[in-house]
Amino acid sequence: MLRDKLAVLSDARFIFALIIALGVAAEFVSGSTVQIWSFVLINVLIAQSINVLTGIAGQISLGHAGFLAIGAYGSALLMKSLGLPLPLSLVAATLMGAAAGWILSFAAGRVREFYLAMMTLGFGMISYEVVREWTGVTGGVAGLPGVPSPALRTLNVFGVNLGEVGYFHLMLGVTAIVLWLLRNFITSPYGRAFFAIHVSEVAAGSIGIPRAGTKREAYTLSAALMGLAGGFYAHLVGYLGPESFHLHRSVEALVMAVVGGLGTLSGPVLGAALFTYLPEQLQFFTDYQFMVYGLILMLSFVLLPRGLAGLVLPRTRFIKRLTPLRSADADGRGTEAPAAIPARDDETTPLLRVSALAISFLGLRALDDVTLELKPGHILGLVGPNGSGKSTLVNVISGIYRPDAGRVVFEGRDITGLADYRVARLGIIRTFQDPRLVPGFSVRENVLLGAHRLYRQNQLAAAVDWPSALREEKRMLAGADKVIAMAGLSALADSIVRDLPYGDQRMTELARVLLADPRMVLLDEPTAGLSEGELKKLALVLQHLKQQDIAVVLIEHHMEFLRDLVDEVVVLNSGRVIYRGDMAGMYRSAQVIEAYLGGDSHAAAPAGGQGGRDA
Q: What is the C-alpha separation between 315 and 303, in angstroms, rounded?
């Protein structure tokens, strides 16, 4: 297959090899061919804009032509009316697009799915009407003629007249730089954060990724690319009219990205090339444009669910091709589980203190006066019947829910009602009843998401592959390999998560938690779906956490698994604590037997123990 033959090429290498070939070939082809190639480059930027927002960050937009209009008219007017040099007018077009995207992101971040699509569609329609009606600036329906252009021989750059080939080379160079920056960004912690938000905003927040801030970055970056494409378009055609920024342009952008392959770097390039040449070859295309686009989208979803890139090119990587530091150099610790658990002082100051928590949903009391404490290096078992409030308690501690009453204090700081990503950045990391991973990521890529709160590089350093950013990435890769080995997943490190059994997905989520370097871990039924061998691995990991003075809250129904691990068990029923103490005492508690264990529980009760008390 063609895909196998191209396996030696990475997603990025394919693109940059193509760019070099185009740059050389432009000197030997006709002017009309160079112009078509110029439109391909503009469409590449447009398709990548949609790819960043929709394919990577998972945010829908049906009005992206509005950003294209902002960039196009902005660059044209700055150069035509104010005499701004081309490089500065293109930079201004990019910044104007970015600013518009940043402003729109505040409203877009408050809605989802259908409402998000309608809101962005409204933005596109408003932009189109502004272009039509603002006659004094845009020229209205008559358009804006005389934009400096190589076709009109009026485009000068620092006193040098730029012809069509020269302008193409300029566009090609800028596009290459943009794609290089995008490649670096996508393989950085910030690019991976976009994917995490796409898959599950709640899971992303649980590892320290802010929802609103990440969406805002996605809108800003996407709109900046559209603004740059608009600037290039204005000077390529030399004339701007409102018809170039109608709804069909937004739909065309979406179709190019989807058919090419969302979530990849090369897919939008392939989609842009296809949808630049297709109208040229099919003259009836304009009259039936929406029908043809709809048919292509339907066929693409059925026959090419991963787009053209998924058909002919190898999978896109979302980590950099770096040699990780040795694990010992990365953090100075080995990967072995502890042989023994050291004794601890029972008088240690509690790491977590939950006081009189209460929360209701639609009048139903989910938590009622819940109080507990947890010390560093202790494992607390949280048990009770389904619907007793266990997951709700974890959701309140981790910042997903804001309680109606009570306090949550962590390391002496009141974190009650703090946003989930801020709670995670303090070191409280959690898992969920079902693994919430990025299905298209490998095990290693998913595990690296856990380190998000630990990264110190900024977005610019990540995009330009600054040496300090690369060194940090190497350290994180070494840490990821270490915890992957601890979870018994080394042989599967490069396997795609969606193709793995449920148990391996569970262990991948746990490895992601370990890489986050937590102070406290909240595990929601981690043994569900695990085999006996995987249960033993999980027990060793929990013992390792205990040795590292990391506190653990363990929601679990597997009593035998809890018996040899927990320091204390808390039993909830109907949102109230009905028992707090050791496992042996739990089996003798009349309230626990009646509410949860049932009449046969005494046969399974362990001998001995100090007992506990009913709450």
A: 18
